[in-house]
Structures are given as structure tokens and as C-alpha cells.
Amino acid sequence: MDHRIVILIIAVLALAVLAVWFWRRMKSKALSVMEYGRSISSDGLFVGETLELTETVCNKSWFPLIAVKMEFYVPAGLTVDDFECNEYIKLTSVFNAPPYSTVTKKHTVTVDKRGKYHLSDVSFSYRKDNYIFDIPLDFYGYPDYFSSESELSADIISTGDVVSRRKYVEDPFFISGIREYRAGDPMRSINFKASARAFNGGVRSMMSNSYDSSRSYDTFVFLDLNRYAECNIHSEAQLEIGLKYACFLFCSAINNGGRFGFCTNSANGSQKFVFLPCESGEMHTKRVLEQFAVIDFYSKRDYSVAALLRENIEKLKPNTDIYLITPYVDANADEMIYLLRGADREIQVINIGNTVKN
Prior knowledge:
The chain is elongated. The protein contains 7 helices and 21 strands. By secondary structure, the chain is an alpha+beta fold. The termini are far apart.
């Protein structure tokens, strides 16, 4: 073989090796100054709702970054870009960033289950170098809530119309709307003019006025998470349906300008039960919803309903509307409820024993 050809081949190989070395060196240098960021559009949302997860890569060098793979783990209970995560999965994003540019990728994340979610640190590697970006993200999945009255049981549909004898006064001058008559509506609420014009399936319907409260009010919910052999309920369905009712009452109170409080016999860290006083405002709303999100079915329960009521009832104002959500009322709880009503305490029992399905 001609020695000139040999020299040419050696020169080409040397240039190729040099080019590869230069490429790798420049890419490593560019990656070392690259910036990564991510954010979410909301730090809390209800089950079934969707948030936007945004990732950004900023190339701060003149060297183009091609096929950079960023990875982090996504917990179970979410759907990311139409992929349902039934277990922890690794989410990989591939970026191509021209020199001195910022590239953005957006992901659609849907919350499928109630809970607190944590997105881990982001990492990628190139040759022997490992890069980790410490940007953890936490957000909450709030309980599912009722989207229509057809989903509600009869004993909770009327909660918005329950009137405390001591303070929840309906002002006839503050009519918020007209709806169909419900059993138990007072005669003075019937709108006879609207009833004369209302037909449903060819049959005349009775219509009632809906009133706005003439003053602010307090709503307090006791959620009983004890397990009762009498109900044969031994699943997480008791917790989920109970929280669904509690969330409905919470939304009803807050949306109507009232204050809301919550208590349940599920242990919370070193505390033997959860207690949130009746308050309002953005911070309190967030605190209640986040508590709804993190309640654990398997936490310890040392308090009976009767003990829970006995210890906390004096913390509530005398004119507070009290709701007890429970699958079963035993003799002790029944006696406590009787005594409270005798002391002019407004308390309504919402029995979920026939609602929960195992």
C-alpha cells in the first residue's frame, strides 16, 4: 500500500479522534453551566382535576446541546401525559437546546387519588459525570367532591337549608334564586307565582325560594373513622366517602361566606386526633384541604365519637352548626347527641353506613 494512503488514513483517524474529543469536552463544559428549572401551575387540586408541569432547560454556552435526557420519578396515583401511573415510574424528557437558548417542555398531570405528592430531584448523566438538580415539588390531591345533587344522599341534600334556631336567620329580602320544593321546606318559602308557571313532564311543580343567610355562620364537621363490626365496613371506602361529604360541607360553608372547622378521630403525628377550629380565609381553606388530603386510613384511632364530642364541643361557639359523619351511632354516641340537642346544640347526623360499599 502506498505510504501516502497510509498517512492519509492515519490523519483522518487522528482528526476523527480529535473531533470526538473536542465534542465531548465542549459538551461536558456546556452541561456544567446548563440551568434546569421546573414548576407546577397549582400546589393543590381536587381529584380529577389537572395541573401543568413545566420543565425548562437553559443553554448558557455557544455549544448546541442535543438529546439531553432529564429524568425523575413520578409517584403512583397520577396520570402524566395520558399515561396512568399505577406505580412509581421514571419520567424522561429529551431536550435539544441551541446555543444561548431556553427550551420549555410542558406535561399535563391529572390527580387520580387523594394524597400528598412529591416529585423527586431531577438527574441526568453524561459519560462519567452525573448531574442532579435539587428542585423537589410537592402538591396535594384534595378529596373527590359531589358535582351534582343526584350524587348526594337525602340527609345531606338539605344541609344547605338547615337553619340554626339560635342564629342562622333566612332573610326574605335576600332571595338568591328559585328551586323545586323539597320536603320540609317551610310554607313561607313557597313561591306561588313561580309554581303557577312551573311544569315538569306536563305536571305542575311546586317551587320554593332559596335564601341567602343574613349573617355569617359557623359550620363544624366531626368525621368518625372508627371501624364498627356492626356495619361490616373494613375498607378505605369509609374514609373516602366520609371525606367526600366533609368536603361538600366545607365548600358549601366557605362559598356562602361562613367559617368552617373540622375534627376527626384519626391520629395526626403526636396528636391523638385532628382538630381545626372554625375559621375562614385563604390560609385556613388551604390548611383544611391539605388536612383532608393527608388523612391516613391506617392511622391510630384512640377516641370514640362520644369522647371526641365531649372533649371538643366546648371549643365551639353556642351557635355553631355541627355535623357528625359516621357509619354507625352506638349507644354512647347516641346518648351524647341527645344531651347536646337537649342543651340547644344544633347537631345533624349524616349516616354513611348505607352509602359505603365494600
